[in-house]
Amino acid sequence: MKMNNTLPHFTFSVQGTTVHYELYNDKPGAQPVFVLIHGFLSSTFCYRHLIPLLAQHGTVLALDLPPFGKSDKSILFTYSYRNLASIIVELVEHLQLSDVILVGHSMGGQISLYANKLRPDLVQKTVLLCSSGYLSRAALPLIASSYMPFFHLYVRNWLVRRGVRDNLMNVVHDSALIDEEMMRGYAEPFYDEKIFHALTRMIRDREGDLPSSELQQITTPTLLLWGEADKVVPVSVGKRLHEDLPNSRFIVYENAGHLLPEEKPQHVYEHIMEFAMM
């Protein structure tokens, strides 16, 4: 495993791929330790407002899950949720962190739950921000189609058809939040054409979300934060997760959509800190 860094940006080589991550306030013994996990088609960029708030009180580790952000976009990597969760575990162990608080947004929430299943001893608490849940694996015809030559072009066209602004408007409640900085930040990773090949591989590798029977075995204290106007993962999913996770608390924000780290960073920060100190 190799590591290169220019503070606070680092790379971590694991399972034949290179993972980009950022580490803040990593003083020995600094607690709590927050591990920030982004969602689908996102990156550490989505946490740019939340990181400085949390870093006032403890260590913050944020990573780009492959093939997103600045991490590798290999077609040889296995993009299953279990494998992505194992990368988080390996990075946490390599950095000799313990009792971490996982903070997962959207798909990152589901991967956080997988990490809980893999290594509950490393996870003190979990925060789910509009977490995905109860999604099945891709249909077999779609998986079969992904082996066709040039299928990555279909993936590319599907993603760029509406453009960055329209895609962002689907995930925020107040479109006034969308500015040039936000559009550049979310568009930048897609300038690398390799991501569309990797996403094609992800269609094949992604297993379904954890079923109720497995969620009910996760006893880690969990905080669920949701946007009332979330059109991507509706509040009903959050309520169902709350029912299945035996040690959970559920909070809904008015006038908020799916992109809570962008829309309500101060509120999210306050609730995370309150939860961390409980």
TrEMBL record:
An example Gene Ontology molecular-function term: hydrolase activity
UniProt keyword annotations, A-Z: Hydrolase
Pfam families: Abhydrolase_1
Residue stretches spanning the membrane: none
Domain annotation AB hydrolase-1: ranges: 32-265
The name this protein goes by in its record: Alpha/beta hydrolase
Organism: Ectobacillus ponti
